[in-house]
Amino acid sequence: MTDRVRLSKRMSRALRHDPARLGITLDDEGWTPLDALLRGLSAPGHPITRADVEDVVAHGSKQRYELDGDRIRARYGHSVGRVELPVADPPAVLFHGTAPATADAIAAEGLRPMGRAFVHLSSDPETAHRVGARHGGRPVVLTVAAAEAAAAGVVFRHGNEDTWLADAVPPEFIRR
């Protein structure tokens, strides 16, 4: 595992799930001072620099982070707090990867964020397949009629080029 990946995972935990562990706080929009994050991530003799964090932001595979001057936040994926990204019109179809054990419940109840702030949807079936594979077993890729859902009032936000977010998606817009 590369140093960039390790640092990104540590940043993810701090900015999405457990900021108190590093002694940082997030404001209502998920921002924290960059210098506070650097202090929290650094260990004696192993400082983390702004350049290290800028490298993760610029070259991370999932565009998880956003730098604005001297502050930073995770764009999506929070289990604490909620970043309000701008509302966006989704493509006609999006995808959601899940485990076989949850596919029937999703078909009956729709997609809910569970422990996260938003439901995460993928732009393509391959990405959804990879996401679903993390849940163990052979993943199930669900198709979401996103444009229809948006027309019916479901609000979508664009997390990054591969990720779309919604508060929830009712079952009538989900197909196996």
Automatic annotation (TrEMBL):
In short, the EC number is 2.7.1.-
Q: Does the keyword Nucleotide-binding apply?
A: no
Please give the superkingdom of this protein's source: Bacteria
The protein's UniProt keywords, in alphabetical order, are: NAD, Transferase
InterPro entries, per database record: Ptrans_KptA/Tpt1, RNA_2'-PTrans_C, RNA_2'-PTrans_KptA, RNA_2'-PTrans_N
**Major enzyme class:** transferase
Q: Does the keyword Phosphoprotein apply?
A: no
SUPFAM superfamilies associated with the record: ADP-ribosylation (SSF56399)
**Short name of any one Pfam family annotated for the protein:** PTS_2-RNA
Q: What's this protein's family per the entry?
A: Belongs to the KptA/TPT1 family.
> What PANTHER family would the database entry show?
PUTATIVE PHOSPHOTRANSFERASE (PTHR12684), TRNA 2'-PHOSPHOTRANSFERASE 1 (PTHR12684:SF2)
The function of this protein is: Removes the 2'-phosphate from RNA via an intermediate in which the phosphate is ADP-ribosylated by NAD followed by a presumed transesterification to release the RNA and generate ADP-ribose 1''-2''-cyclic phosphate (APPR>P). May function as an ADP-ribosylase.
What is the name attached to this protein's record? Probable RNA 2'-phosphotransferase
